[in-house]
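Feature request disguised as a bug report, sorry. It would help if multi-protein outputs had a clear separator. Right now it looks like this:
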Amino acid sequence: MLFDLVRPAIFALDPERAHRLTVAALRAMPRRAPAAAGPLATTLAGLRFPNPVGLAAGFDKNGEVPDALLGLGFGFAEVGSITPLPQAGNPTPRLFRLVQDRAVINRMGFNNEGGDALARRLEGRRDRAGIVGVNIGANKDSADRIADYAQLTRLLAPLASYLAVNISSPNTPGLRALQDEGALTGLLDAVLEARSEVCGEAGPPIFLKVAPDLEPADIDAISRIALDRRLAALIVSNTTIVRTGLRSRHGGETGGLSGAPLRDLALQRLRDFRSASGGAIPLVGVGGIASAEDAWTRIRAGASLVQLYSALVYQGPGLARRIVRGMERLMRRDGFGTIAEAVGSE
């Protein structure tokens, strides 16, 4: 109710300024305990998630407020995307609300304070509870992007619950080319070797975040490589560059589209990866999730976990808890005792 009252004032602000103010407000809040394990508790890659609803990368790029986010009821939070060196990102304006479409377009360009700044913050919360993953990327002007991912892995693997290798942002030119079979194999080998260098056999799980704008051959190749390299999970999916049926005046802006218009495409890609991998690799469903029904549909389609971000813009900070409560009811309705039983049950 409070969010409904203040939303007009928030929406009167430039979206990026509103986001900065939101992060500042979360930073100033008293710390709350992370979500406790409940009926939806589940395990993936050796990590025990109190519930399967996570916050996607992009909200807390610099790892400023992961504990505040966990205190909102999320079962896990993913910070980043982070690059080795600080970078300003793309010129402004670069973030747009598509209110009529319940969507967001961003072309932020991996703006962040760099790996060292994030490492210091994660070091400061090392003994706190809660699952905090780190989404890693490459600097825009890097001469060797694979080396960037390896560098971040060596720096952040000892501090992260898991690492998410992001090769799917549309806002860094050429980044999605790393989804090509040959490039992806080289990238993952470098990341896995870097993790072993600093963590031995005890390193954090490696997730891979992919785009929704893939052809069937790409999906097959990525699935095959992920299985061969024994990745812990695929995050399906990032934002889309496809524009269909948008009503907002910002619908023609370049960048990645997220929110409600991405829902059906992201759900289909989840099913595609489930089919291509034979269900042998865990999946994290992302894109257009705005309700318990959306999240439950992803679980039934094959996701072990789900993530959201854009829906928070329109529904406010109570969304995670509402989705968790709704999923508990849906799980009971459908006769499942655990999330693991429901995964892929459609």
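(second protein starts here, but nothing in the output says so)
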Amino acid sequence: MTHSTKRRAHVSSRAAGLRGNSLGELFLMARARGAIDLAVGTPGYPEPSRDIIDAAAEAMRAGRNQYDHPSGDLLLRERIAATLHTHTDPATELTVTVGATEALCVALLATLDPGDEVVLMDPGYEQFKAAVTLAGAVPRFVPLHPPAWRYDPADLAAAFTPRTRAVLLNSPSNPTGRVLDRRELEEIAELCERHDATVICDEVYSTFVFDGRPQISVTEVPGLAERSIVVGSLSKSHAISGWRLGFLRADAARTEVLRRVHEVTTNGAATPLQVAVGMAALSVDLPKATAEMGRRRDLAQEIFSRAGMKFAPAEGGCFLFADVEPLTGGRTDGTAFVHELLERAGVLLVPGASFFADPARGEQYVRIAFNRSTEVLHEVDRRIQAG
């Protein structure tokens, strides 16, 4: 008689090392309590343009429901090119992707071989480490130091080795709100040139930069421009995160390779949604949206500063990265504080530990999304003060 044995499914070591969404339990608790969600970056401001929504419906009715060219709708690529900091040929240097998430994975897969090393800033968007791991590469972390979240140039140089093939940047940053300045970008350029490394820069939040500060793209910096891949998205700037429209900007030679990888991964983003943004993009007033987002940043900083949190002012993006130790006295970590605030005030934040290579470095921090309506932010203030 034979006995069947239940075997564990074989999975790749790269996939086995990936972690799921650590906020799942908190989201369920928040929903049950009717909490205000300041955890995820899903836009509560700005609202999607009515013209874009109408254009999507019209594109579907007009029959634009089948595959388009994998590189993306040409009119949309032309619209994106017109918003970028440097001249970009929409025909040969831009690729529309299924959100910035696919764009990031495509950029890494097109650049790296297993065992290659990638320089990352720490703290940083937690999905960066996961994407690097999935590509089979090895992350090398450069610690950023609070409260300004800047690196030590010696730490940056030490992160580069003979195996370095790429540097993965994010400016404006999620979660810290830092915008890399020209001096920092020039330091990174010198090291990239010395080690012949590609720079992949997530510039998803480039629309939202505050206080008259310049947003400098890696495509504008000698030494980075000719070795750069820019990851972009329409999710935050146009408030259409569910449409999953991102893009990759690179020179023509790199773009040819990026497009081949893109075709293997998804083959293309949703046609009618691309057509809609291409047709209606000019109806979105980005300067106005930036000014309004700056006012929301100011309001959020006032609310959470008054509540006792400490943070450097967000230079860009849509997040505050706050130190809660003044409130906890070191008695509890950020995760415990998030649970406490959820119970006490019905407001959901994100524990900061998941943004660090060593979670212990982030135990006293929380991330706060401020891309919300002013009404929501005022209600958050009322709940915190009442709690």
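Even a blank line would do. Unrelated, but nice: The chain has two domains: 16-46+286-386, 50-283.
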